[in-house]
Amino acid sequence: MTDFTAKRILIFVVAYNAEKTIEKVLDRIPAELRLPNVEVLVIDDSSKDRTFECGLRREVSDCAGMRVTFLRTPFNQGYGGNQKLGYRYAVDNGFDVVALLHGDGQYAPEKLPALLAPLIGGEADAVFGSRMLRKADALKGGMPLYKWVGNQVLTTFQNALLGTRLSEFHSGYRLYSVPALARIPFERNSNDFHFDTEIILQLHYAGLAIQELPIPTFYGDEICHVNGLKYAWDIFRTMLRAKCHEKNLLYDRKFDVGQVEHLYDLKLGFDSSHTRALAAIRGGSRVLDIGCGQGLLAAEAARLGAHVVGLDQHSAFQNVPGASFHQWDLNSPEFPVPVSEFDQVLLLDVIEHLRDPEAFLEGLRSGSGVRQPELLITTANVAFFVTRFMLLLGEFNYGRKGILDRTHTRLFTFGSLMELLEQSGMELLEVAGIPAPYPKAVGDGWLGRFLLHANRVAIWFCRGLFSYQILVRARIKPAVPHLLRQTVESSEELRRAAKSGVT
After folding, report:
1. Structural domain of 58
2. Is residue 110 in some structural domain?
3. Engineered SS bond to 103: which of 18, 133, 191, 481, CB 3.0-4.6 Å?
4. Which stretches of 123-230 are assigned E, i.e. beta strand?
5. Is the distance from CB of 96 to CB of 161 less than 8 angstroms?
6. Is 295 in the same domain as 156?
7. Count of the separate structural domains present in the chain
């Protein structure tokens, strides 16, 4: 038996032109929910009829111990906009659970106790009343066949894109944990009817648990305000945009939930920046790994016989035999170790994060003395064809990962990176394009391998357009002061040798 007094519950009713039904909906709220800790909030979205006036009568009348609040928007907010107001009310007033009802009576208030139970018991973050858990019942309940088919087509498409198994995405009978709502940016969602899809996407990306329970289907003589074709298009566009955000092809703030990932996984087993870096490391060499993250690449290099020192601003470096670590702000002007002691320097996907790459490279060159270590540098190619295509569509925004990672401070093409390195005193030894990590994005199967191979062929034709990353192997030439000192010292040796030869 569920104890409904254990949580503060808000029953939120969205209403538009509902003067004939709103009081009946309130009357149908079950007796076990008519408690002091339960409040009913009705927001009339600037109806053209007497919905608000009818509500005011109920607000001042005896509601059997249940508080009822009626509000009216100053101008029409739309279905999604009305929900934003109700959920903000729930968050601001300290409710634990909010249940969404419709003022036209399409969703049965009698099912509220059953739908509330998982939230009261802490078993879910959101509960959806589904008409499609038993699909035939929806048709028996009066759902028009074209709506039933459209519901199923859209739901199948949405499940396929998200990897979910919801029976329907389009029920308006929804209940949420208010702390869960507080974790997602629902106020950034559309004011239109596809608000419901956007909030599902936010819950999904935040890793919050959704539970579905069956509800009866009822279609009466209420007026439908949904334009079906526009709604379907909005859903299709929203899903594709969310998927592109998920794959870091574009950025959409409303889907930016969860923690920002600072550390990257190792990409091995296929052609990648990490694979190429390991191939370039010489056994027995001393390697300085700048921006080493948790030390995954350092561990692989140590296994090849290299002696690795890692530098990073994050202290997530694991205990790696044959490697050591220094926590260091990469924007600091002073290196914590003498760069001149190393044979190779790795700067993998780091330069784009630096506040002043020119000053950093000058400091690296100055610290190298006359040793002339080899520098291996990789960075994203901003001229990658996907980025160019997005620009063609008018899209340019930063995301959580990828070429347009929002922590990037500088973007490079092949030409601009080569110019930067040459002006910083580097002798270019190799310049190459690296394909996109398709095995990571779509799985290391036949499709991922095919796309990887196709990308490599395309790079051969036009590396500036089809390279996902740029790789440059360079030799750090001595800075002029070091070169002058070396010139003076070597000249003195020659002078002494010449004098010895004369005598």
Report:
1. 9-255
2. yes
3. 18
4. 126-130, 174-177, 210-214
5. no
6. no
7. 2
Indicate the range of 45-49, 51-55, 387-391, 478-482 predicted with least confidence: 478-482
Residue 263 included in any domain: no
Among candidate residues 224, 142, 208, the one with its CA nearest the CA of residue 176: 208
Q: Is the full-model pTM beyond 0.85? A: no
H or E element that contains 203: helix 195-205
Per-residue pLDDT at 321: 85
DSSP code at position 260: P
Residue 295 lies in a domain: yes
Residues 92, 10: Cα–Cα separation, whole Å: 12
C-beta atoms surrounding 121 within 10 Å: 12
Most distant CA atoms of the chain, gap in Å:
121
DSSP 194: T
Domain assignment present for 265 = no
Within this chain, do residues 247 and 278 fall inside the same structural domain, yes or no?
Answer: no
Collect all residues with Cβ–Cβ distance below 8 Å to 310 and sequence separation of at least 6.
Answer: 289, 292, 295, 298, 317, 320, 323, 324, 325, 326
Same domain for 293 and 377: yes
Spatial separation of the C-alpha atoms in residues 262 and 253, rounded to whole Å? 18
Per the DSSP assignment, residues forming a β-bridge with 469 are: 380, 434
